Structures are given as C-alpha cells and as structure tokens.
Amino acid sequence: MLSTTPNGNGYQPTSEQLKVLQTASEFAYQVWQSRTGACQTFLRSYPLDTTLTRQQIDDLIQDYTLDENYQLGHETKVMSGLRNLRMLLMMRWVWQDALAVIALEQLTDELSEFADGCILFAKDYTYQQLVTQYGQPTFINEMGNVQVDDMAIMAMGKLGAHELNLSSDIDLIFIHQARGETDGDKAKGTRSIDNKRFMTRLGQGIIRLLDNNTADGFVFRVDMRLRPWGDGSDLAIHLSALQKYFAQHGRAWERFAWLKARVVGHIEQPFYEDIQALIKPFVFRYYVDYSAFSALREMKSLIQNQVAQREDLDNIKLGAGGIRDIEFIVQAFQLIYGGRHPQLQVKSCLKAMQALYELKYLEAITYQNLQSAYRFLRRLEHGIQAINDQQTQRLPHDVYWQHNLALTLGFKEWEGLLATLNHHRYHVNVPFERMVTERQVPAHDDELEPANLDEQVARLHDVLTDENHAQLQNFWQSKMVANLSDEARERLDGAYPVIVHALLAHQDQQQLANTALPRLIALLEAICRRSIYLVMIAENPNATVELIPMLSASPWIAKELAQYPVLLDTFLQQRYRHLPDKLELRDILRQQLLRVEPDDEESLLSVLRLFKKNQVLAVAASDVLAERPIMKVSDSLTYIAEVVLEAALERAFAEIVKRYGYPIGQDGDPVTEADCGFAIIGYGKLGGLELSYSSDLDLVFLHKIKEQGMTTGEKSVSGMKFAARLAQKLMTYLNTQTRDGRAYEVDMRLRPSGNAGMMVVSCHAFETYQLEKAWSWEHQALVRARAICGDKRVTARFCDIRRTVLALPRTIEQVRIEVTSMRIKMQKHLGTSQWQQQAGKFHLKQDAGGIVDIEFLAQFAVLAYSHEHPTLTKWSDNVRIFEEMAALGIWESEICQDLTDAYLRIRAATHQLALSEQTLLVDESLWTETRTLVQTQWQQLMGVESAE
Questions:
Q1: DSSP state of 396
Q2: CB atoms < 10 A from the CB of 294, how many?
Q3: What is the pLDDT of residue 899?
Q4: In contact, 114 and 57? CB cutoff 8 Å
Q5: What angle do CA 883, 886, 887 make, to 5 degrees?
Q6: Nearest by Cα to 930 from 913, 946, 912
C-alpha cells in the first residue's frame, strides 16, 4: 500500500494511494493537485510511513520562516511560511490517517507538538520585536532584586492533553509573573511601559501570527475564552491575580478546564513551580471531593439540556453518547478522586481511563466500551474534519461524502458506519446517565402506581368542565398523538400519570385545574414531538406539581413554555428557587458561550436568546410563587440584561478585531480586550434599574477611539468605521429575530440627534451635544442614564459628563415649566382617550397620577436641585433619588416615602398585568387613593395641577 516511486523531484505515490487521498479529503487532494512538486519534495524528506519527532518539527518551523538570505524573515514572510508548512503537514497527516498507517495517539501527539512549536516560535519572535521597542519587562522580586518577567503559555483542553485533532483550535491562557515595567530607556531608543501592556501586546502578537486568516490561510485558530473572567478581560494575568481568582471566583466547571492545563515549552523552574502550586490545589482536593457532586450534577444537566434542545444526532462531540460525554465521565472521576490518587492526575483521556480501571472505579466492560468508543469517535472526528479542513464534529449530509467517509473508515456503506456509531453511543450513554444522578421521588409515590391511574383519571374528569373534558379527549384523539413514534407515545404514556397527579394536586390546593388545563395541553402539543421533555416530566413529579400553578397563574409563562419548550428544563430543575446574582449570571452565560465555537454566530445568537428567556422565566416563576419584592424582581431582570450586553459586546469586539485589527485609543496606543475604547450606556428602564418582563432596552454607544487613526489589522479601517461596525454587530446580536425570538428590542432614539444622529459618538461629541444642543427633555432622560458595560475609562468619562450636565445651574421655575410642558405633551399623545376616561379607565403609566408623573417628579428634583446638592446626580433610579431628597431635607420625608410607596405599588401591578397578559388600562376605582396622592404631590411640588 505504501510503496512509492522516486522521481526527479520527489516521491510519486501510487494511483491507489492517490485515490485514498481523494476519497478522504477534498482539502488535502486540492493541496496535492495545486502544489504537487512541493508535496513530492516534502514527502521524499518525510515519507508517509514514518513518524515526526519534535526536533524535526522545530527544524521545519525554522526552515519555513527564513527569507531568501537564510535569515529570519519579516512578519509577512513568517506568517506565509508557517501557513504553507501547516498545509503540507496537514496534507501528510490526512493522508496517513486515511491510509491507517498512523496510530491515534501518534497523530494527536504530532499535531500537538507542531502547535507547541508554533506557539513558542511566535512567542520568541514577538518578544524580540517588543524588546527593541520597550526593553525587557521587569519586576522587583521578594528579595528586592530586579528580575526579568516571563510569560508562561498554558495549553488547555485538547492541546493541554496532547490530544489535538486535525482541525482543532487551540485554547490558551497567558500568565506572567508580576506587576512591573519594562526597562526601556529613551536614550537607547526604547520607551518604558507597564508589564501588563507589554504582556498584552506579546499575547496579541502570538495570536496574530497564528490565528490571522491571510491569503495562505491560518496556522491555528486561537481561543482565549478560558482565561479568568473570559472575553473582555486582560489577555494576560499575573500570578497573584490568578491566585486571588482561584480563591475567590474559581468555579467547579473551571476545575474541569484546568485539569488539562499544561505549560508550553520551558520556563524557569521557580516560575513553573509557582504555577503548579496554584493549579493543583484548585483542581484536586485531598479528600474525596463530595462538594463537586452538585456542581457536576449541574454540568450534566446543562449537557443534557443542550442535547434536548439541539436534538443534534449528527454531532459526534455534543450529541448524546458523544466525545463530550466520555470526557465528562472520566473528568468527573478525576475531580472527585484525583486528590487521593496521584495516578489520576494525568491529562490524557485514555490514560486517565486506564488509571480509573486499574483503581477499580471503572468495571472492565465499561472501560473497554468507553475506550473503544473514544478511539472510534476520535477517528471519525478526524475523518469529518479532513474533508474540508473545518473545525466541525457534524456528520456530512451530502451522500457523496457520507459514502467517502464510510470507505475511509473501513466500511462498505454509510449504514454500516452509522450502526457502529450508534452502538458506541449507546455504550457511552449508559454510564453517562448513571453519573451523579438524582432522580426525584414523588411525595406520594403510591399515587402514581398504575393501579391508581384509572381512579385518578376518573377524579380528574369529575373536576373538569365539559369544555375542558372535550379538549382533553380531542388531544388524545388528535392526528398528532396518533402519528407519534412508538418511543414518543411510550414517553407520553409514562408522563401522563404524573400530569394527572399534578392537576389534581392543584385542584385540591387552588381549585384552578380548569384554568391550567388548556395551557397544559398547548404545552404538551409543543413537546410531544421532542419527547425528551416528556421524560423530564416523568422523572420530576414534584417539580411538575409546582409547574401547574404557574400555568394557571400566568398565561405569559404558559405561552413562553409552549413556544420554547427548551425552557421547561429551568422549571423542572426548579432553578427559580434561587435567583442568581449578577456574578452567578455572568458565570452561567460564560459556561454556555464556551460551548459555542468562536465563529458560529447562529449558535451564539441562540445561546444569548435562550439564556435571556430562561433567566427571565425563572424570575417570573419566582415572582408568581414566592411573591418577591418588586425591587428584587427588577434588579434580577436588569442584571440579566446587563450580562447579555456584556457578553454581546465582548464577542462583537473580538469579531470586529479579527476582521480589522485593534483601533487606536485616544492615548495613542492600540486598545485591548480589557480596555476596548467603547461603552454601552443604558437609558430609561435599564438605566433606572426597573426592567419588566417585556421591556425594550434604550441604549447609547460611546467611544474613546481616534476616529481618523487606522486599525492595526492587515485589512485596516478608520477608528470611526471600526466603532460604527462594532455598534452594528452589537445591534445584530441583540435585535436579530431567530427561531428562538430575539434577545432584546433595542431603541437607539435617545442618542445625540436621535434617529438622525450617528449610531456611536465619541465622549467629546456627546459632551458637546449635551452642553450646547440637547433639549431639556434630553437632560431629563439623562437623569435615568447609567453606564452598563465596556471600557472603564469610557464609562468613567460618561459619569463625569452626566454629573456636569445634571448639575448645571437652572432656576427651579425654568425646570418646572419645561418638565410640566413635556408631561402635558406626553399625556396628550399617550394617555387615555376621553371615552376611556368616561368608562372609568385609568392608564397606570401615562395618565395623571400614574407612574410617569412620579418619574417626572424625580427628574424635576435632580435637574432643579443638583447644582446646590451634587449628591443628587449619583442615582439613576427613582427610589434612591427620593431617599436622597429626604436625606437632604429638600422635600419632607413623608412626601418622599408616599411617592416611593405609590411608585412601587404601581410598578408591582404592571408586572402582574404583564404576567397575566393584560394591558395597563385598569379600573380607575381600584386606584383612586394612589392616584389622588400622586396628583396632590404633583400639584404641591410643581405648583401646577396634574394634567387631566
């Protein structure tokens, strides 16, 4: 099979070998066809039946980065050389794999060694360039001596375990030793910068050399999202900051990530030991780590929920019984028992599996099944990725490539490959389902016995109205139920006793089974075809009992669940019992985004939308069941929006940087991930911390980027264009309608000059506009404005501008006239009509005595009194503005408290109306007292009667 014929230029493969290559990979065959001479020469030096050593790989990297004078080339030559070398090596590895002449471990090891070699080359190359500009980075060590700072590059994930596959990206984390500054000297033509900036530029240089997609392609896609705090944080972290992060913020899922962490190349021994001393106690606990069980259960639930959501049987990594499930099984054992058994502290999945078998944590048959499945799935993964040199784990849909893939893996036809794949998936799924399981036992499990079902169904029929009884009968006799697969029908039958039991329990407690039933049937119709949700209901009887009251209490919740059944998992896991704070929300979203490939925009949009819907629904459930205070509910809804905006900005920035490079900040240096030169400002309900369930987001974008300066990328654009494209990308992420809905409706009309203005403006332009051109109502709007996320320098500048503008000298009479005039205009346009008023209706928000009156009073207070009392500019929410007015003695405490109580009462009602899908137009008679109080205060404080 491997006989080759030498010719003048190199080795000539046999026609049979060429056919194998053509069958296996369109990409590698095209490389051969377009560069036959170079490929022949390469294979003469490195034949297909030989392996590559690390020394050979390093020599190749050196050779391919030299210029025509055999000197190290300039950056363009280096990037081109590395990419051409990768192409030849990939052609060779794909061919070896297709010919089955290279073992799985040898292939992944060579790929990993090549990545290590490229990383170290890129580090040294960039370091030398930076030293000529800034000198060496230094710090003062414990002995008080000056020491040169070094950066350790941590390989994570597959590269950390030496398990890189044919088209893997590489997960990296950059760690340097300490704060300090470079020894740059102007007299020597260098300038000093702090170590953080030096290490950031070193990291950016490494990423640029390897990741930038040029005419010659790329070397490796670099993924930095596993670093502490993830996207939007400093690219490099120093040791003491890492220690603090592990101690205070490190999560259980991050222990999984750091399990495979490995230092690339050689660093000084003390630095290496310092890193290991931080990682080891973070990942492994000496005692059996029972604390990990709940976190592992949560991670397993996340995996199962994503499988249910995707129903992605084509994905051999993320689908049920895929590579991820094997890694979860092995790593869960490593985390729990690795502290006691050093032999489990290995990075390779296969080696860890063997250690688990030897320690009797895995039975012989389970070990054999998992090992066979892992080898088969990794080989299949290589086969899939070889086709077009793409980072994908999805089986091909094209019949031609299905057939070719089957042949490459030694099968005669596609069906044979699928049968083997499903066999392995089954043998992975069984132990995965057994891991850290916690099946609910119903409170009265005897009631769910089959013998009692007939009795329970009869009871339910007695309870139901004739209309609901008919609707239930129609459901069971519907075409949809008749056309269910055998498995789905079995699951529906299995869930039905739990559903009947839950409906009866609800009837006993609240007599509302008839309200819940039509909404429950709509939900069942939505989930029957994705029957994994029926299994969730059957396995969570107690949670199902608590689901029914929510359906009867809120048609909005019921409709959201029926429209997006994936949200059901939040309810059945009863996550609404604990509403996460902002840090926890950030962590939950970060975990979910790490499962999305950096260039997979469709999955990114899906994760953002489902995260928002899941979390908002959990707040709604908590609102319905626990009757949380309105302030807590609004805080939670606001945190969710802030976390989505943070993640969207970080991802949008990374995407635009990848395309155009970094823009130049107003300090003359390129911006960084941590200081991106851009910020999001929230106005309205977001700014005032009072979001409701269906609020849109009023946003303004500001920047501190040199508008005329050009970005650092190969495809360079002006700073102004960069900022505009970043804003557009953000809007796409937030506003785009997908099958999962949209993340948020975004309203940009409050930006300078409104719809006629630029989508993003500089801080200077914003300040000029506010001081010289803004209308008084725009200053009113600024009272409720607040910096949400982005570059801290930009947000701090915004806060300064806001404070200055709000504290401008104004006469009380001038403010009173302007605020009253605006209020009358708004009410004419948005308040109730004359016939609605005659019918005794009151609009909670827009009518006199409603919520807008209270908001305008708070805005009047800030604009009228901030010049003399600057502390009034501190808050953007009405409650704390009233508190401050009382504390300053400007208004009586009783007045401020009355306004606050009325405000919270009306807001709580608006939330309940939203959950009940009712409008804000209510019976005036129910609100007479509150309305009168607000109108009286308006008249007293503004000196004019509230507009009727």
A1: P
A2: 12
A3: 95
A4: yes
A5: 85
A6: 946
